[in-house]
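To whoever is on call:

I kicked off a structure prediction for a single chain this morning and the downstream step that reads the tokens threw a length-mismatch warning. I double-checked the sequence; it's 204 residues and nothing unusual in it as far as I can see. Pasting both halves so you can look.
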Amino acid sequence: MDPLPMGVAGDDPVQVRNIIEGRIDELDAIITIGGCSVGENDQTPSAFPEGLLFHGIRLLPIKPTGMAIVRGKPIILLPGHAVSAALSFFLVALPALNIISGLGFDARMPIIKAHAAKRFSNTHTIDALYLVRLRRSDGEYEATPLGWGSNSLSNLARANGFLRLAPAQVVEKGEAISVTLLGGLEMSRVMRRSHPTDVFGVLG
């Protein structure tokens, strides 16, 4: 699939709907970013009164995510927050794109085993996703948790993957965890960080 920028729409559900309906026939799917939270100006879900499949997921920090169907095509509504948008893409948009591409639901979502670099926990009352930064040492991967608060954009740039924790779940230092990578090229970043004096070739 080749991405096609569609411009910027105002906080107006009619404008959002008109833009999408004007281009949907030439596209396989549409991804919107922003305008789907609970603020007064978050009007994107209102653009699909009949085709809205869901709006809201009990999972932090991607709660505002949604999906609609217009003329048989998926419209994926991603939040505007940088980390929320990125994680929503991997948890909602990518599986949808995999399916319409004839791939498995979780294709193009590599998962590796790592050990927690320190103790951390989910203090929220619902499931939460946590960004992690990976490092390889002595033949094993070590995952350091990163926050997604005020410094979210910088932490997103530093992150290599993420994992999901249940409410009150605690990950102890050294515990084995499964990390979903933020794309197929993350391992090359990890290797360069772990072995900065080596030279690696990446195919893809």
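Update from on-call: the warning came from a stale cache, not from the record. Cleared it. Sanity check on the structure: The first helix runs from residue 13 to 23.
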